[in-house]
Amino acid sequence: MTNVIQLHYNYYMIVLDSSTMILLAKVDLLDTFISSCRLKVAISEKVRDETCVKGTEEIPLIAKLISDGKIEVKKVKNQELVGKIMCDFNIDRGEAEAVILALDKKAFVATDDRNAIRACKLLKVGFTTAISILVRAFEKGHLDREEALIKLEKLADIARYSKAITSHAENLIKGGA
Q1: In terms of Cα–Cα distance, which of 70, 3, 67, 77 is closest to 39?
Q2: The domain that contains 113 carries what CATH number?
Q3: pLDDT one-digit tens code per residue, 110-149
Q4: Over 70: is that where the pLDDT of 79 sits?
Q5: How far apart are CA 125 and CA 128, in angstroms?
Q6: Which of 96, 112, 138, 172 could covalently link to 85 via disulfide, CB atoms 3.0 to 4.6 Å apart?
Q7: How many CA atoms lie within 13 A of 117 on its CB side?
Q8: Rounded to 5 degrees, what are φ and ψ at 54?
Q9: Residue 100 banded pLDDT, cuts 50, 70, 90
Q10: Given a cut of 70, is residue 1 above it in pLDDT?
Q11: Maximum distance among all alpha carbons in the chain?
Q12: What is the 3-state secondary structure (H, E, C) of the chain?
């Protein structure tokens, strides 16, 4: 859960993938995270396309953050490498582009995709998850305990976290670990 804390000292940018950006938006944490983040926040063009799909409830917030310049949209130039990462790690284009952007920009990735996390580990790209961002927001005082626990419960309902991960996060929020 402490990877966000450690990474702030080594990077100037965080690259969000679609799943994590949507999870943060669904628990009403995306704007708080971006507003309190000292790093630049970026997404790839593919992630923008995936998250701004007509009919999803997150569109207005994400579109506003992009138009306000709080989220930068970056073009991934090396599409051949994107294809290789997709194939090697069995991940979708959005996750692959996030990893490639992080490599290119000396950034780290916010992803909740198991295979994208595996890619980050093997390629030595720093990463964090929505649940880690939630815990860190609580630790920094951006959320009170009750609000953090409510958001954690909602995250657990909509994401595919193991019981061990959500229990650990709950302990951290309650002050037990």
Answers
A1: 70
A2: 3.40.50.1010
A3: 999 999 999 999 999 999 999 999 999 999 999 999 999 9
A4: yes
A5: 10
A6: 96
A7: 11
A8: -55, 135
A9: very high
A10: no
A11: 46
A12: CCHHHHHCCCCCEEEECHHHHHHHHHCCCHHHHHHHCCCEEEEEHHHHHHHCCCCCCCHHHHHHHHHCCCCEEECCCCHHHHHHHHHHHCCCHHHHHHHHHHHHHCCEEECCCHHHHHHHHHHCCCEECHHHHHHHHHHCCCCCHHHHHHHHHHHHHHCCCCHHHHHHHHHHHHCCC
Residue at 61 is within a domain: yes
Contact partners, residue 78, CB within 8 Å, separation at least 6: 100, 104
Q: Residue 104 sits in which domain range?
A: 3-142
Radius of gyration of the chain (CA): 15
Q: State the residue for tokens 């649940």.
A: 131
Alpha-carbon torsion, ordered 131, 39, 29, 86, to 10 deg = -60
Residues 6+ apart with CB under 8 A from 141: none
Residue with structure tokens 């650990």? 168
Contacts of 58 (CB under 8 A, 6+ apart): 21, 22, 25, 26, 30, 51
Helix axes 18-26, 59-67, angle to 10 degrees: 110
Q: How many domains does the chain have?
A: 1
Q: Is residue 19 part of a domain?
A: yes
At residue 167, the pLDDT reads 94
